[in-house]
Amino acid sequence: FGGIIGLILMSILVLIVNMWSDSFTLVIFWSNLVIGVVISAVIGLVSGILPAYTASRLNPVDAIRSK
Hints:
This protein has helices at 2-20, 30-56, 60-66. By secondary structure, it is mainly alpha-helical. It has one domain (2-66).
């Protein structure tokens, strides 16, 4: 979700820069947007799966007792 918000903000920023600049034009390729969303999704999944997997391997009694 954060990756999509970042891509939307980047797109808005590119539009603003293109309106103000006469000497150059920034271009966003759709392939780069797709790659950005995919990488963001993979990072999000890995960041959620690894802690969940680690927590699932713990004995619940030991996990509660250690806190």
